[in-house]
Amino acid sequence: MSISSKWFLWFTAIGIYVMFLGGIFYYNLFKWTFDQKLKQETLDMVHLYAPTLVRGLSHDQSVISIDELDTITRIAGDRRVAALVYLNKYGEVRWFKDPSKITESFDEFSREVTLPTDAIAKAWQTKSPVILPVPNLPLYDIAIPLSYEGRALGILDLQVSRETAVTVINSAMTKYAVGAVGVLLLLGVPLYFFLHRWVLIPLFNLREAIETLSFKNFELKFPPRSDEIGDVAEALKMFLFKVKGELSTVKVRESQRGLSEARWWRSILFAVVPKNYHAIVVDEDNSVLYTNFQLPPVSGIPGIEEKNNQNKPASKPHLLDVIDTQQQEVLRLIGIALDRPNQVVEADTVFKSEPCHVKAIHLEEEGELRRTLVLFEPKNPRIALNR
Question: Fewer beta carbons within 10 Å, N or C terminal of the chain?
Answer without folding.
Answer: N
